[in-house]
Amino acid sequence: MFEQNISSLAKQLRDKDISSVELTQYFLKRIADLDPQLNSYITVSEQQALQQAAAADALIQSGQGSSLAGIPIAHKDLFCTQGTLTTCGSKMLNNFIPPYESTVTSRIQQAGAVMLGKTNMDEFAMGSSNENSFYGAVKNPWNTDTVPGGSSGGSAAAIAAGLAIAATGTDTGGSIRQPASFCGITGLKPTYGRVSRFGMIAYASSLDQGGPMAKSAEDCAHLLQAMAGFDEKDSTSSETATEDYIGNLNAPLTGLKIGLPKEYFGDGLDPKIADTIMAAVKEFEALGATVKEVSLPNLKLSIPSYYVIAPSEASSNLSRFDGVRFGHRCDDPKDLLDMYMRTRAEGFGEEVQKRIMVGTYALSEGYYDAYYLKAQKIRRLIKDDFTSALSEVDVIMGPVAPTTAFNIGSKTNDPVAMYLEDIYTLSVNLAGIPAMSVPAGFVDGMPVGLQIMGNYFAEAKLLNIAHQYQQNTDWHLQSPSMAEGV
Amino acid sequence: MSIDKDDVQKIAHLARLTLTEEDADKYQHSLSSVLTLVEEMQSINTDGVLPLSNPLEMTQRLREDVVTEDNQRDNFLANAPQSEAGLFLVPKVID
Question: Residue A311: CB partners within 8 Å, gap ≥ 6?
C-alpha cells in the first residue's frame, strides 16, 4: 500500500475500500517497525494523526475534502505546528511547542491531510547530509551506510522507505533537491515567494523556500496545489496567481526546448552520473523535445556568493535564540551576557555556530562591502545568467549533485568538500527560480536525480515535464529492499 | 585568507557565543577555510553591478497600521524558560 500514489489512495478512500484511520494505522505501524533503522522522524504524533484521520473520514463521508483528504504525510521539523514539538533539528528548540501554525502546514491540514509526525533534518537546515542533527544522523534507505542528503533528509528517507506518502521540505541551497536525488524520490523547490514562509523557522530569508516531496511529480502537484499561493503574513509572498498544477500534468512535450549548461557537465561530475543524465535527456528527445547547449558562466561563483549571503542572513535570523522567551537556557547565568553566551554555545551545534560566525564576520564593520555587498552583486550576475539562458530555452536540465549518496562520516572532517557538493543547486536559490529533482536511474545501486530548472513561476510546466517523463519511465516507482521488510 | 585565534574570540563575542580554547582552535581552522573559499569573489569585476537582495526585486508591501492579533500573552509565556507575573524573567540587568 505504501507504494500507491495520492490519486489512487484518494479514490479508494472515496470508494470506502479503505478508511483514513486504517491507512494511518498502517503507516504508524511501518514507522514503528522500520524507522529505528533510519531515524527519519524526530516526533511521531500518533494520537493526533488518528484524530485527524477520523475527522478526514467524516469529511470524505460528507462528500467534501480535496484529493489530500485522509492522506498520511509528514512535515519537516522546521515548520511550526501548533501544540506539536518543533525542534528544527536543534538542542536549542528541544522543548519548543509553537503557539501558532505555519501557513504551509495549516493549508495542508485544511485540505484534510493527516500529519504522521515531524521529520529529521540538519540543524536549522544547515547541511547537505543530515549528519548535523542534534537528534542523530538519518540513514539512506537504499544503503544505511550512506547519508540521505540534507537538509530535508528525514522527509526524503521517510518517503523512499514508505513511511509517509509525501512530505514537506524546505530548500535554501538544495535542501529539497539533493536529498530527493540521493533517496530516489521527486522534489520541487518552487519560485521564491510562491510558498509562504510564515511559520517556517528562518535560515536565510532571501533564499528559503518550502516545497513538496513525494514519489512522483503527480503527488508533488497535489501537495503544491494546497501549499502555494499569496499569504499576507509573509512580507515577500508573491501575489502572482497560482496555476492548476494537476490539470496541466498531461500537456504534450512536443516542441519543448531543453538547455544543457556546459558548466554542469565539467570536472567533478561522476561520469556515470553524466551518462545517466544524458540517457534521461534522450528520453525527452523521444517525447518531442529539442536540446541545445547553453552557458551559465558564473556557476562556480555561486559557492562563495551563497556561503556569504546565507551565513550573513543566518547570523541575523538566529540572534532571536537568546534564552529569554523560548528554547534552551543555560543553568545559573551570572548575568545577562553570560546567559546569552552560554545559552547559545550550549544550544547550537558546531556547523550552526560556524555559519553564525562566518555571517557575523562578513557583516562586521569594515567587511560589509567586501563580503556581503560583493556577494549580492555576484548574485545578480548569476540571476542574469539564468535569465539569458532561459530566453533561449524553456527549461534547463542537468545533474542535482556531482555524486550519489556518500558514506556517513566520510566528509564531516572536510566542511569545504561538503560545500562543494552543492555546486549544481545553490545558483537556483540565488536566482530564485523553481527547480525539481526527478529520479532518472541508478549508479552502483544508488539513485540519481535529474535536475529540471525553469523560469520564474513555471512550477506547472516543471511538474508537467517531470510527469510526462514518469509516464514513460519507472525509476520513481523503485523502492529500496528495506521498505519491503514488513 | 586566515584569521588568528584572537579574531575568532572577537567574532564569537559579537555573535554571543562562549568558546573554550579548544573550540577557538577548531573554529580558527574551519572559519579560515570558509573565508578562503569565499575569497574567490574578490577577483571578479562587479563595477556597475547593482546588489541583488530579493530575487524577484520586490519592494516591501505595506498594510494599514491596525491591530491584527489578539493578546496571546499566556500562550507565548508557556514557552519561556522563566516567567513571573506575566513577564519574561531574566538575570538582573541594572544594579
Answer: A204, A355, A356, A358, A359, A362
Look up residue A68 and give its amino acid.
L
The answer to whether residue A267 scores a pLDDT higher than 90 is no
Average pLDDT over residues A79-87: 98
- Surface-to-core class of residue A8, CB atoms within 10 Å of its CB (0-12 exposed, 13-18 middle, 19+ buried): exposed
Pick the CATH number of A6-252+435-484 from 3.75.10.20, 3.20.20.70, 3.90.1300.10, 2.30.30.100: 3.90.1300.10
Q: Is residue B15 domain-resident?
A: yes
Q: Residue A70 in contact with residue A23, Cβ under 8 Å?
A: yes
Q: The domain that contains B23 carries what CATH number?
A: 1.10.20
Domain presence at residue B31: yes
State how far the Cα of B16 lies from the Cα of A342, in Å rounded to an integer: 8
Is A339 in Cβ contact with B34 (below 8 Å)?
no
CA A72 to CA A123: how far, in whole Å?
Answer: 25
- Percent pLDDT > 70 in chain A is 100
pLDDT level of residue A414 (50, 70, 90 thresholds): confident
A102 is catalytic: no
Q: What is the mean pLDDT of chain A?
A: 96
How high is the ipTM of this complex? 0.96
pLDDT exceeds cutoff 60 at A486: no
Angle at A151 between CA A150 and CA A155, to 5 degrees: 85
Q: In which band, very low, low, confident or very high, does the pLDDT at B2 lie, cut at 50, 70 and 90? A: confident
Distance from CA of B43 to the nearest CA of A (A): 11
pLDDT of residue A73: 98
pTM over 0.80: yes
A-chain CB neighbours of B51 within 8 Å are 373, 376-377, 379-380
The reply to whether B58 falls in a domain is no
CB atoms under 10 Å from CB of A283, counted, come to 16
Q: What is the pLDDT of residue A416?
A: 80
Q: Which residues of B touch A336 (CB under 8 A)?
A: 90-91, 93
Cell of A265: 557537465
Residue spans of beta strands (DSSP E) within A172-308:
186-189, 210-214, 257-261, 290-294
- Contacts of residue A377 in chain B, CB cutoff 8 Å? 46, 49-52
Closest CA to A220 of A288, A164, A166, A163: A166
**Contact between A149 and A128 (Cβ < 8 Å):** yes
Domain that includes residue B14, residue range: 5-40
Instruction: Calculate what percentage of chain A has a pLDDT beyond 90.
Output: 95
pLDDT band at B13 (very low <50, low <70, confident <90, very high): very high
